[in-house]
Every structure is written in structure tokens, then in C-alpha cells.
Design brief:
By secondary structure, the chain is an alpha+beta fold. It has one domain (about 5-45). The chain is about 30% helix and about 15% strand. Strand 1 (about 10-15), helix 1 (about 20-35) and strand 2 form a beta-alpha-beta unit. The longest helix is centred in the middle third of the chain and has 16 residues, at about 20-35.
């Protein structure tokens, strides 16, 4: 279950509004991609938001 190799990796939960601007979407995607590129896990509930 617990793996010492994962100690430096984060699980980042994302909470946001269901109505966002194109700029907000672009920024959120950029942050998510950067987090993933660094080995972190991005979690989104996906409850109708963008």
C-alpha cells in the first residue's frame, strides 16, 4: 500500500466553479499539466464542472 518512493508526490484535489472563462480553463490546464509532469496526481470530482 504505502510506497516510500511516493513520499515526495502530492495528491492535489481541484475544486472550482461550473462556469469559468477560457482564461481560467487555460490556467487550470497549465497548472494540472505541470503538476502531472512533476509526478503529482491531480484529482477532480468532475461534477459537471469544466
Amino acid at each position: 500500500m504505502f510506497d516510500a518512493r511516493d513520499e515526495s508526490r502530492m495528491r492535489v484535489s481541484v475544486i472550482g466553479g461550473g462556469t469559468v472563462t477560457d482564461e481560467q480553463v487555460a490556467r487550470a490546464e497549465a497548472v494540472g499539466r505541470e503538476l502531472a509532469a512533476r509526478g503529482h496526481t491531480v484529482v477532480c470530482g468532475g461534477r459537471g464542472g469544466t
